[in-house]
Amino acid sequence: MAKTKELSKDVRDKIVDLHKAGMGYKTIAKQLGEKVTTVGAIIRKWKKHKRTVNLPRPGAPCKISPRGVAMIMRTVRNQPRTTREDLVNDLKAAGTIVTKKTIGNTLRREGLKSCSARKVPLLKKVHIHARLKFANEHLNDSEDIWVKVLWSDETKMEVFGINSTRRVWRRRNAAYDPKNTIPTVKHGGGNIMLWGCFSAKGTGQLHRIKGTMDGAMYRQILGENLLPSARALKMGRGWA
C-alpha cells in the first residue's frame, strides 16, 4: 500500500545504458535487482521524453496510491456512512499516513460528496412489493385522475439510534439508495402523532392526535378534517 522508494538517477541511467547495449527488460531487472515493470517504465519514459529524471508535476503528488484509492472506494460503496477518520485508520493500518482532509479530497475527485442521509420509512418486503404493484398498476393513469385523489396518513416518526443527522458518501442522484438512507418507524416516545392530507392542488388540514387512536377516533378525524380539506382544496365531485 505504501509508495516504494524512487530509483536514483544513476540507476535509471544504468537501465537505459544496458537497454542501449541490447539487453532485454528481464535481463536488466535481474542484473540490477529491480522489477521488470520498473525497468519497462523507465525505458518507456526515456523513449518518449529522452530523459530519465521525473518530469515536473503540475501540483503536489497524490498521497494515496491507486490501490489505496480502490480500497477506500470499496469501503465507502459497501458502507456509505463510513467516516473520514475510519478511512484514515484503514490506510494507516495498510502503511499509508494521510489526513482526513486528504481522504475528503480523494473521495470528491472520485465523484462522491458528503451528504445528510435521507430519513425514509422502514418498509418490510411485503410493503415494498405492495407499493411497487400499486405504482405499476397506475403507471399510465392520466393527470386528470391524480388531480382527483386526496391522500391522507397519520405518523409519528422516531429514528433508530441517536436522533441526529448522519452523513453518507454518495454520488449525485443516489440519495434514496437504501444504503444512503436512515430507516424510521412509527413508534417510540417523545414525539407527537399527526394526521394530515394533501392532493395535487395543495395541502389540507393538519390534526394532532392525542392518546391512542382507534376506529371511532379515526372516523371522527376524517369527518372533521378530510371533508373540510376537500372543500378548501376545491376537489370538486368524484374525488377519492
Automatic annotation (TrEMBL):
<dbReference type="Pfam" id="PF25787">
    <property type="entry name" value="HTH_SB"/>
</dbReference>
<dbReference type="InterPro" id="IPR009057">
    <property type="entry name" value="Homeodomain-like_sf"/>
</dbReference>
<feature type="domain" description="Transposase Tc1-like">
    <location>
        <begin position="71"/>
        <end position="140"/>
    </location>
</feature>
<dbReference type="InterPro" id="IPR036388">
    <property type="entry name" value="WH-like_DNA-bd_sf"/>
</dbReference>
<protein>
    <submittedName>
        <fullName>Uncharacterized protein</fullName>
    </submittedName>
</protein>
<dbReference type="GO" id="GO:0015074">
    <property type="term" value="P:DNA integration"/>
</dbReference>
<dbReference type="InterPro" id="IPR002492">
    <property type="entry name" value="Transposase_Tc1-like"/>
</dbReference>
<dbReference type="InterPro" id="IPR052338">
    <property type="entry name" value="Transposase_5"/>
</dbReference>
<dbReference type="GO" id="GO:0006313">
    <property type="term" value="P:DNA transposition"/>
</dbReference>
<dbReference type="Pfam" id="PF01498">
    <property type="entry name" value="HTH_Tnp_Tc3_2"/>
</dbReference>
<dbReference type="GO" id="GO:0003677">
    <property type="term" value="F:DNA binding"/>
</dbReference>
<feature type="domain" description="Sleeping Beauty transposase HTH">
    <location>
        <begin position="1"/>
        <end position="52"/>
    </location>
</feature>
<dbReference type="InterPro" id="IPR057667">
    <property type="entry name" value="HTH_SB"/>
</dbReference>
<dbReference type="InterPro" id="IPR036397">
    <property type="entry name" value="RNaseH_sf"/>
</dbReference>
